[in-house]
Amino acid sequence: MDVRPEDILTLKKPHPCGSKDMYVIRAGMDFKLRCVGCGREFMIPRNKIEKNIKKITRENEQVE
User: Fold this and answer.
1) pLDDT of residue 63
2) What pLDDT digit, counting tens, does each position of 7-59 carry?
3) Phi, psi torsion values for 49, nearest 5 degrees
4) Exposed, middle or buried by CB within 10 Å (0-12, 13-18, 19+), for 10?
5) Cβ(64)–Cβ(56) under 8 Å?
6) Around Cβ 49, how many Cβ atoms within 10 Å?
7) Where are the domains of the chain?
8) Is the pLDDT of residue 62 over 90?
9) 44 near 60, Cβ under 8 Å?
10) Which of 37, 42, 50, 55 might form a disulfide with 10, Cβ 3.0–4.6 angstroms?
11) What does each C-alpha distance from 7 to 4, 17, 42 come to in angstroms?
């Protein structure tokens, strides 16, 4: 899956604050994400996040 920094990921399950959109800060073996709703930053392993991605949004384009 082609996920780059500065992408916005829409996930299947919401963050505890209620937002499903996450901003990608760093991509690699682990992803560093920032919740768009509350601003909390966290790291999550690639294999765990890839199966929960519903949509990837980049500037001026959408990738599914």
Assistant:
1) 61
2) 999 999 999 999 999 999 999 999 999 999 999 999 999 999 999 999 999 87
3) -80, -35
4) middle
5) yes
6) 20
7) 8-59
8) no
9) no
10) 55
11) 6, 20, 15
CA dihedral 59, 32, 39, 19 (to 10 degrees): 70
DSSP state of 28: S
Q: Token pair of 64, please?
A: 């599914």
Q: Would you state the pLDDT for residue 1?
A: 78
End-to-end CA distance of the chain: give it in Å, rounded: 9
Residue 64 confidence class, pLDDT cut points 50, 70, 90: low
> Side chain identity at 53, as an amino acid letter?
I
For residue 59, the model assigns a pLDDT of 73
Q: 53: which strand partners?
A: 11
